[in-house]
Amino acid sequence: MENLIQCLARKTRVSSPLGFFILGWVALFAPSAHADSQVQGRQLLREASEFYKKDEFFKSARYAFAAIQEDPSLKPDAYAWVTLGLMHAGLPNLASYFFIRTLQEGNRPAIRSVLTQSEDLLMVVGADLIRKYLVRHTTESEYSEINRGAYFYSMAKEALLVGDTAKALSYLRGVNSSSPLWPYSLQLSGSAHAILGQHFEAIRDFRGCVSDASRIMNHRTQSLLHLENVGREVEDLKARCQAGEARTLYEMEKFDEAERAYDRISKASFVWPDILFEQAWNSFGRQQYNRSLGRLVSYKSPTLSFVFNSEVDVLRAQTYLALCLYQDANQVLQEFEAKYTPIGEEMKDYVERHSENLPEFYQLGKKVLKASLYKNTGFDHVVNRFVRGAYFQGLVFNEAQLKKERAIFLKLDRAQSGVSHQLGHGFPGFLDEVLHWRTRTIQLLGGAFVKNSLMDYHAQLIEDFEKISFIKLEMLKDAKDKLMGIEHPKQEKERARGNAKPSRRDDQYQWSFIGEFWFDELGDYVFGLESECKS
User: Fold this and answer.
1) For residue 502, with 0-12 CB atoms within 10 Å meaning exposed, 13-18 middle and 19 or more buried, which class applies?
2) 394-425 burial string, b = 16+ CB within 10 Å, else e?
3) How far apart are CA 86 and CA 61, in angstroms?
4) In this structure, are residues 449 and 386 in contact, taking their beta carbons and an 8 Å threshold?
């Protein structure tokens, strides 16, 4: 009201009798006007509740928003009604803003009412947008039994991010198996057990994740706009949990079981190109170096020409070295430096030039995702490794959904009679601002993901260069010892095992390689090299 008086004072010459009269009139009747706004606001909020009960969800949200304009003190309850209305109107990205604002208001009854939507929002807009607000502003007791998984999952993810693995596991035990977050919690739980070296528990959870992942499709959120994205998420989750089981078996040195677990991952999965490399390591662990080289040669197939993985060449050099094939190992080392030095410099330069501009990283990810796998440059091949996963594709999908949500709320708005439909004003105008906010959050989250991933892969590339240097040193040492007639009996005995013949399962056939790569044979090639190590 003070602002209103100041406004009138600016528009009226207070030195005149009329000016003093107007200011006196406003001061006299201001309390009454304020009381009228409070009454009107509460009435609008009651009407919002009634419209919600009649399944007129968008109208309910609009009336609740109007209540705030009349009386800002009604924000906690009004934000809650807007959240519920927009969620049930099929506008989850718009609802996420009002959900967060409700939590920030700190009104416990209002918070409890919107927490009924917490699991749906985590599933649709992503945990990274919502999680920190649930951790900061809610307590376990405020959730209903059916939505409590959102709290435990968020707390567990937060604990894992700060390295408190045991605490994360204690939270994950609270996620109910009926929750749509259950398969995701099993993946986190399996990873946490693996970190702690609890292998049997890790395998149990990864297997549960694989078998239960499809239950995500049957959840009530299937009526929301994200359904198109769910199938991709389910298949990606299955593949990653299957890989988690195989990696755990590898850590336990159960190489045969690990091999069978890896084989259960579909070659159509985008996870599989990296899995092929892990299978090569599994063969290396069994001293089946010819099979390891056979796995790695699949990367020379045109089908996998888009793959960027510097560790593939490190393992290839290491395998040749294990067979004492120094000329082949040296050729791989030379190719490694020629191939990866310029890519490493380009990665470093890009990150440094755009370090403060996260949207630029997001646009890079979108550009690479949109482009053909087989027309990308070496640098883009690096970006391919992470932008084609479910997380980044989910962000791009949600950004595309914003246009659809805008079309929906404009259609719903036009169906309302007796209100202004002028663009940029009122409730629709504010929703447009919310869409700009949501677009920005997607760009920042996606940009941070791409930037951090580039930094991680650059660090991995540096580490691989160091491994290559060690391989060079070992080759030079072996060459020197050979010239000087120095023998290492123990070392030679160990290397002699490199000539072990790989076993063939009943479901595998033996064919000669005639220079053609067939998709169904990728990953199943075996070299026929003889070890040149002294026995």
Assistant:
1) middle
2) bbbbbbebbeebbebbeebbeeeeeeeeeeee
3) 6
4) yes
The one-letter amino acid at 352: E
Cα separation, 42 vs 68, in Å, equals 9
The model's pLDDT over 327-349, given as tens digits with 9 standing for 90+, comes to: 899 999 999 999 999 999 999 99
3-state DSSP call for residue 14? coil
153, 127 contact by CB (below 8 A): yes
402-423 tens-digit pLDDT: 999 999 999 988 887 766 656 6
**CA–CA distance, 128 with 121 (Å, rounded to integer):** 11
What pTM did the predictor assign? 0.83
Residue 429 parent element (H or E): helix 426-483
Among 22-31, 183-192, 448-457, name the one with the lowest average pLDDT. 22-31
What tokens were used for 54? 């009649």
CB atoms inside a 10 Å sphere around CB 349: 11
pLDDT for residue 218: 63
The CA distance from 423 to 410, in Å, is 9
Contact criterion met (CB below 8 Å) for 498 and 322: yes
Task: Give the separation between CA 104 and CA 365, rounded to whole angstroms.
Answer: 32
Produce one character per residue of 177-196: b if its CB has 16 or more CB atoms within 10 Å, e if not.
Answer: eebbbbbbbbbbbbbbbbee
